[in-house]
Model the fold of this input.
Amino acid sequence: MINYQHKDLAAGRWATMSLADQMLNIGSEISRANRWRAKGNTERCHSAAARALELLSLTIESQKGKHSLREFCRLHEVIADLYYGDNTYQTDPAKLQQYFDAFIYSRSQQQ
Done:
């Protein structure tokens, strides 16, 4: 069994959230990872990235059959590569943050 950091979300609450809300929460962790990375704090950067990957995994599970999983799975791969790998995909952390920030507009349209 996986030891989730976000136990209440993993228990089912995450699946009740809109996709925009899910992506904004993941984006918050990416923002934290980017700030810690810029400050040279690898441990905290990795911790925030791990939380982002966990939430993205929950999104993949909760969105099956609703949205394209290919994009979410590739996003998982890109995040892991950026923060834990050699950045093979040459991902710009600022561009990654912009990807998540785009969901702010999506969320505002839902309200």
